[in-house]
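tmp note - Kinesin-like protein
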Amino acid sequence: MKSSLFRTPRRPKKPLNNQKDPVGVYCRVRPLGGGDEECCIEVISSTTIQLHAPEGFKVNRNGEYKETQYSFKKVFGVSVSQVELFEHVARPLVDDLIHGKNGLLFTYGVTGSGKTFTMTGSPGQGGLLPRSLDMIFNSIGPYQAKRYVFKTDDKNGMEIQCEVDALLERQRRENNLSVPKTPSSRQRIDPEIVDMITTEEACKADGVDEDSSYSVFVSYIEIYNNYIYDLLEETQEEAVKPKWNGGGTPVRQNTEFIPPQSKILREDQNHNMYVAGCMEVEVKSAEEAFQVFWRGQKKRKVANTRLNRESSRSHSVFIIKLAQAPLDADGDNVLQDKNQVNVSQLCLVDLAGSERTGRTGAEGTRIREAGLFAQSEDVNQSFLMVVCVNPKGEDYEETLASSFYRPICGLTPGRRHKNQRRAPVETGKILPPLPSCELTDPSDDVTLPRLIEALHNRQRIRQTIIEEYNRAANTMKSLLQELDSNLISKENFIHEQNGKLIEKDKLIQNNMAEIERLEKKTKMQEHKMDILQKTTKIYEEDKRTLQQELETREHRLQRELSDKRRLEQRMHGVVSDTQHKWEKECQTTTPVRPLHRRSRSAGAEKWVDHKPNSSLDLGTVLQPVIPNSIQVSAPNEKALSKCDRYVLTHQEVASDGEVQTKLIKGEVIKTRGGGQAVQFTDIETLKQELTTVPSRKRKSSEGVSPSGDQQEGDWTDVETRCSVAVEMRAGSNMGPGYEHHGITKRRKP
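out:
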């Protein structure tokens, strides 16, 4: 269910400049029940209250009690009377209701905070509701229409009946009443609501339109367990007609109780929400209206909670609907034009206790009620709220926790009293005088015939005057009706033109919105074009830079290729010379077994040389040679059982893009179960590096600077490059497990 049930009818988009603020939240503090109760609320000013944590309440992290301040439009302390509260809160809403505006008033707070007392009151201390009803009827009492002249339809609208139809309907309804009304029964008032308001406290609104006729309709609904119920609807027990015995005492019939049916929320043609099928009762006095309210109040569902056994766990909405229409040109009857009827309403809402469900002990279907309105508030809704708070320390956590009036044009003001101010027609001045009617002689035959003729003449003149008067009256009436029709047609034309103007304004606003959208889109496209242009410039600069770098690398590659060819030629010569020299030495000396350079891991132990099939041959001069080893592509138990040491050859790509070889060494240990395990002890790294210097010009390998340092050309010699090895050991100072050794190969003399 949506909260749009309590939404007032649509208001114009451009409110008047002198319109009051439609939103206001007030606070009312109820007095403490006894002298021993601890107070946790302090009224600081007329708009602010402060909450103090009671003794034993949980403190902050700082060890201090938490104090919180709240601001309202106005704060009413414990000494504020019901009259003062009504003057500040509800009286402006009632005044707006009488002048054709809508209002909505909430009372909100925990159980026992005084919501029901604020809304309903008690004998001698009437609340907001009875005082609002009293002000309404004090203001419109002399101008009320007869019963059933205004008639509600089933679509949230209002119809007008003529006096004859209203009289017939009154008679029909009185005949259908099963219980005969007596003067005593009509004046009987419930003792719980008697004398709510004293005569001295009565008030009325100013500026009531005397040329309009008014009628008041009330309805009372309840929202319980997410359902809407009509509290004024008669149940089956109430609808059964009792039998009356001879003594006038009703005899009840035994009937089976049927629970009330939930009502449906609908939307009328003006997009206002209403409860379909809800009973609306026409009332003619404040007492009658409050009697209707009290009859529905007794039907409200009451749940037993630990806080208050009489606290209602449902939300109630009492709706006061005021219908007004102008009088006709004569000021006697209501103008029979449905379009001239203005309906305004005032909704008085008594919310259920706002305490948490865990504290009230409510369970089952009642748990969803406390959060009903908190989940479905309409941000565009205009309303007033009275927050009732209880200063008891026990409630500290809970406390913390449309249309405007349309003036009728074209009819003369003061029509109601027009007939009372009419002056009588002085006919004695326009009729001829009567002749002397004195008889002096019994045989006088002249006086009486002359008197009779004068009387006949006066009768003819009177009839002529009456006919002329009627003709003039009819002419004036037709003229007034013609003027009224012309004025109405002009108003309709103005209304039509205003409608067209509004449509044009909407079209202009739509076009302006479309233009604004297109301008934003154009700016966004321009921004994207700027970004693309900047990106294109960056890409072009990168392209030129890359082209230059590519050309530089191509030149460098050509130089390196030429250097490589020269180096190859030189090395071929050196190899040839060395080969001839060794051949001569071999011919003159005894053959000697060639010695190979060992890695540091080589020893007298027998090794398992694990080289995966994925290992690459880098073609380097220095290669790890492990004597007395068994080479395997995958370790197995047979190989491990024959060896004491284990080495794994692992290749990976270094951070500079070169391939480096790691020799992971370990010891083969026999386990208790008769197997073998490998315990890794050392890692050696063999890395091939290509040194790049700014100048690619080769220098003689024999040229040495006077200071003894190697020149740039030393790194271009094959012998120098091949004489440098990189080894990694655990605990090296070069980083996590790195140690570098540069060994210069001895030159042959």
